[in-house]
Amino acid sequence: MVSAFLITLREGLEMSLIVGILFAYLARTGHKREFPTVWIGVAGAVLVSVAAGALIFVTAGEFTGRGEQVFEATALLTAAAVLTYMIFWMRRQAVTIRSELQARMSEVLRVGSRAALVLLTVVSVGREGVETALFLFATVRTSSSLAAGVGAAAGLAGAVLLGWLLYQGTYRLDLRRFFNVTSALLLLVGAGLLARGIGELQEAGLAPPLIEHLWNSSAVVRQTSTAGNFLEAMFGYTSAPSLLQVALYVLYLAAVGWYYFRPVKLALEERPPGGVRRPIESAAPRKV
């Protein structure tokens, strides 16, 4: 439930910020009449996201035995890779996402095509929605559908509310800190997805455990208990992990965590051709 909440809160706020940027640009350029067109694009993005989620869940139900294990391993490892990429993509694109969206909007408005505006919205928002569908599939596999659904709905509602308040200018949120904190938590989720994916490959006989059970903590926290389900969904907890799972979990956190939070001196300033340094924009999206 908590991991589903965190995922939809983070992804939902990114979607809300994108929609807010589109609305703010339309309002500033005197094109408020195009607001309904953007809403049509948002609706299209929602349909694409739901369709992607349905396809993933339906496809998963077609497999049994080893085929199911391989499919779930593929989905979990893909989710870990996409989640990791998304974290770094957002940090890198946060500086330019506003200007890039505005440049695309300017071109769309110059052409005067509402279909192009709808398509721009569907692509910009739908990408985040498809990622969310994949992450939720990985989350639901380790918790009840009801708990994951409640968590996802709460996270999405919170993201929409925060996005609306930011757009209205009635709430100040340190987006840099928000994305850094959620990124740290999502890195733990990503490490858990990786470990669980490896576990599925081991069950399918496609990955060596090295040592089958490095320890067994079921006497402290049973994996099937409420606490165990929470820890598994959030951090990839396994009561009896293999050496390969533990090694990759630790390696992932050490390597990816260091790369994300490492100090980058050159990122704090930018030197233009004239040689005079000037600060760059905040790494977090600006308020809209």
Please describe the structure with a list of short key phrases separated by commas or semicolons.
288 residues, mainly alpha, 9 helices, 72% helix, 0% strand, disordered C terminus
Task: Give a structural overview.
This protein has 288 residues and is mostly helical. The protein has one domain (2-267). Helix content is 72%, strand content 0%. It contains nine helices and no strands. It has helices at 2-28, 35-61, 65-93, 97-111, 114-140, 145-168, 175-203, 226-235, 243-261. The protein starts with a helix and ends in a 27-residue tail after the last helix. The model is unreliable at 266-288 (pLDDT under 50).
How do the strands and helices of this protein lay out in sequence?
Layout: H1 2-28, H2 35-61, H3 65-93, H4 97-111, H5 114-140, H6 145-168, H7 175-203, H8 226-235, H9 243-261
